[in-house]
């Protein structure tokens, strides 16, 4: 019988100085992908290639045949990760993974420990918790900040230099265009960013002994999610230990931990919005929820990266369409109540959002989508005339 299954086309990474380039084809889609980092030895090996290709392979039912060497421990871990992922999400299918050669490649310890770091609540918490051992913080340009968002990228670089100078911890700036490889085959938050971080981690396997991935949720709130304590450690092998960190506490506990730290209050960055000249926009859901926590703790006025007050009209305009957003909002309401602010205008604004029925939320989102479409049409007409 003829084997008619699709097989991904995966070329080994080609290194040029501090940059590694790849060519991947999954189904009908071809992806030129690169990772770069000034002054850091990157590992463009079979483990990195597998981490990049696995999500798309599961989405397109495409088998993976890796060129070159692959760690047998990493292969076993990735097969386990694939079983977990396909059990969580019906849109994915387990596929065959083979390699040209299976070789264990232990390395001499470097003594370096890293942590992914965006400047947000989760990453600051992990940094402060492991401050004595962390030697490197890693920010990935091209993930939550777009490569062409130059003002925001400059602000991130300045934050990194300030933290480096204040603590002596090295701030590594990875750059990659790999996000399309994950977004084309699922939602970034729900499906893709765990593989995105795993891919970035594998590029540092020759430089670091261990790397932390800060958690998104507390243990009690865990759900199928791209970055998870069951899946993140499966990017480990004999050369690199990957640890999912911070599930022992909730987001409010993390904010309380960093609220007393001047470094965190000076540099806290949670915003994904692209607003010219703004480090945090102060208007999006992530900004408003973080500002609410800081206000409840009495330190919003001391934060250098947020507006001095929470705009109640912005809170009331929020739409809670996702279970994770609802959990975070309820945590804030509980915190406000615990601080004697349960009947404050801010608490009532959040409660109003939580009590709004989902049918009305859907209508609001539909209306905003239609208005946004018409605004874009009007702008095009005006630009054309």
**Number of strand segments:** 11
Unreliable sequence segments: none
Largest sheet: 9 strands, mixed
Give the H and E element order. EEEEHEHEEHEHEHHEEHHHHHHH
Shape: globular
What does this protein structure show overall?
The chain is α/β, with parallel strands linked by helices and 385 residues long. It folds into 3 domains: 94 residues, no CATH class; 133 residues, Rossmann fold (3-Layer(aba) Sandwich), CATH 3.40.50; 93 residues, no CATH class. It is 43% helix and 16% strand. The chain is built from 13 helices and 11 strands. Strands 1, 2, 3, 4, 7, 8, 9, 10 and 11 form a 9-stranded mixed β-sheet that branches. A two-stranded parallel ribbon has the order 5-6. A hairpin with a 2-residue loop joins strand 3 and strand 4. Helix 1 runs parallel beside helix 2. The radius of gyration is 22 Å and the shape is globular. The N and C termini lie far apart (63 Å). The model has no long low-confidence stretch (mean pLDDT 93).
Summary keywords:
385 residues; alpha/beta; Rossmann fold; 3 domains; 9-stranded mixed beta sheet; two-stranded parallel sheet; 13 helices; 11 strands; 43% helix; 16% strand; globular
How is this fold's topology laid out?
Elements: E1 9-10, E2 14-16, E3 19-26, E4 29-36, H1 46-60, E5 64-70, H2 72-88, E6 97-102, E7 113-116, H3 121-129, E8 136-141, H4 150-167, E9 170-176, H5 179-183, H6 188-202, E10 210-214, E11 241-245, H7 251-259, H8 262-267, H9 285-296, H10 312-316, H11 323-338, H12 345-355, H13 358-384
Parallel strand pairs: 5-6, 7-8, 7-10, 8-9, 10-11
Antiparallel strand pairs: 1-3, 2-3, 3-4, 4-9
